[in-house]
């Protein structure tokens, strides 16, 4: 069961990218000048998310046509998504970030590479050089005037191309970004919007007065400067030398793990034995024990993972809600229990962590954020790109060959990736970065457990 990349594949470290042009694009039609409220969930996500979407050559869509269609589609999509052409501002009177929808523009860059898509090697294995396909900021603009969204189109010599997107996490979560991509693709095909975005973030406003009705051990109070970027305070980038490995679970592996979880169940009939829950439970056990020497019976491990709130709130959020509608669920256990407990118990704890996220619990977390301005805190965060479906978006020139984030290796964040397009066995790839000693133990735990 399970497979492993045999060492680090040979990665291309220079994609030989040359920037050809860079501009600010404005909405195709006049938009209302306004201020957009950002929820307490949006507030703590003041950092950029970088994604790359690779496309094979399509003879019906030469490079100049691709560029023209994406440029026009972006200008058109900036009308319903007017906030993407705005700028992030700190409101000192409110003590919070907001978006000034001032039509200042989104970034659009065109670049070329001397390489072919085939020269890129294994697209699934995270390559730091993919950063060359992303334009994170526009050097000609001051920090306060940086776009919230920049699209870079990089044309390969084979006719294929990459669409690199850098956007502020305050603008989208994974679900709303997928909807945005569907809309961008639809407009590129000269069709209407696929989904009308719902932009009112006030649906996640804290209650007045705030009412924290649950303890929140998954949150920690942090002192930061008002309006300061907060991405490095959730999980600090480590200076340690890390081993990087990708562990793969096939669909058969996942099915067998589900059976293992079911076979050990007692009366826990409410446990949801989903693919995500069993993969997360396995990761938790391996990561929690990788640094555990058995000499401290009181040592605990807390795992964090995102839960979509859209259907959990009362009333439910509109499915097309554009902001960040996710909160961090958690599960905590002693390392001794992780070592000696049953797999079904671990799956139950992960399932229970998600089930805890009721309307009242979510409102309590949001209210906690109003009072304390804090962040999620745990030993490991599972960040799942597994089923977001970015590679399922149908553009005029076809679906992406692969879509992935540009990865910054951190030992306390474990990433779940989907398979590359065209692979029939839809398993999951698990990216782990750990110090060498811990990686060896993680590796042994993972494969010993799979048997």
Short key terms for the protein model shown above:
single chain, 451 residues, alpha+beta, Chloramphenicol Acetyltransferase, 2 domains, 9 helices, 25% helix, Plant_Fungal_Acyltransferase
Quick synopsis:
25% of the residues lie in helices and 24% in strands. It is of the alpha+beta class.
Widest sheet: strand ordering? 1-11-18-17-15-12-13
Number of domains: 2
Radius of gyration: 22 Å
What share of residues are in beta strands? 15-25%
How widely separated are the two ends? 7 Å
Q: Can you identify the CATH class of the largest domain?
A: Alpha Beta
CATH topology of the largest domain: Chloramphenicol Acetyltransferase
The CATH superfamily of the largest domain bears the name Chloramphenicol acetyltransferase-like domain
Strand segment tally: 18
Please describe the biggest sheet, giving its number of strands, its sense, and whether it closes into a barrel: 7 strands, mixed
Family: Belongs to the plant acyltransferase family.
InterPro entries: CAT-like_dom_sf, Plant_Fungal_Acyltransferase
GO molecular function: acyltransferase activity, transferring groups other than amino-acyl groups
Pfam families: Transferase
């Amino acid at each position: 069961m399970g497979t492993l990349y045999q060492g680090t594949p040979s990665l291309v470290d220079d994609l030989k990218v040359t920037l050809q042009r860079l501009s600010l694009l404005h909405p195709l039609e006049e938009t209302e000048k306004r201020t957009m409220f950002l929820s307490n969930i949006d507030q703590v996500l003041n950092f950029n998310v970088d994604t790359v979407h690779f496309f094979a050559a399509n003879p019906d869509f030469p490079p100049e046509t691709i560029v023209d269609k994406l440029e026009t589609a972006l200008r058109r999509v900036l009308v319903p998504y007017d906030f993407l052409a705005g700028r992030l501002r700190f409101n000192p009177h409110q003590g919070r970030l907001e978006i000034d929808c001032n039509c200042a523009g989104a970034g659009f860059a065109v670049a070329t590479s001397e390489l072919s898509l085939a020269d890129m090697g294994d697209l699934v294995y995270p390559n730091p050089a993919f950063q060359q396909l992303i334009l994170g900021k526009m050097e000609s603009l001051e920090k306060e005037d940086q776009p919230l969204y920049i699209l870079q189109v990089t044309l390969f010599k084979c006719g294929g191309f990459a669409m690199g997107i850098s956007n502020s996490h305050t603008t989208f979560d994974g679900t709303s970004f997928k909807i945005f991509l569907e809309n961008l693709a639809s407009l590129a095909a000269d069709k209407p919007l696929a989904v009308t975005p719902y932009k009112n973030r006030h649906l996640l406003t804290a209650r007045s007065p705030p009412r924290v009705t649950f303890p929140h051990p998954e949150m920690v109070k942090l002192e930061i400067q008002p309006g300061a970027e907060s991405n490095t305070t959730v999980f600090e980038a480590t200076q340690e030398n890390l081993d990087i490995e990708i562990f793969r679970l096939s669909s058969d592996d996942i099915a067998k793990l589900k059976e293992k979880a079911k076979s050990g169940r007692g009366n826990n009939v409410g446990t949801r034995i989903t693919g995500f829950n069993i993969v997360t439970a396995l990761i938790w056990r391996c990561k929690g024990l990788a640094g555990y020497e058995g000499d401290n019976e009181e040592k605990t491990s807390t795992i964090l993972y995102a839960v979509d709130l859209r259907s959990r709130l009362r009333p439910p959020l509109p499915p097309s809600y554009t902001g960040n509608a996710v909160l961090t669920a958690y599960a905590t256990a002693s390392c001794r229990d992780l070592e000696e407990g049953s797999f079904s118990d671990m799956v139950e704890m992960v399932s229970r962590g998600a089930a805890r996220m009721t309307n009242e619990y979510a409102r309590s977390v949001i209210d906690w954020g109003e009072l304390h301005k804090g962040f999620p805190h745990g030993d490991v965060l599972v960040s799942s790109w597994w089923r977001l479906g970015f590679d399922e978006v149908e553009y005029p020139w076809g679906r992406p060959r692969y879509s992935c984030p540009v990865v910054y290796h951190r030992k306390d964040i474990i990433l779940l990736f989907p398979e590359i397009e065209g692979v029939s066995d839809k398993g999951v790839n698990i990216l782990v970065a750990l110090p060498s000693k811990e990686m060896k133990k993680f590796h042994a735990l993972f494969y010993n457990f799979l048997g």
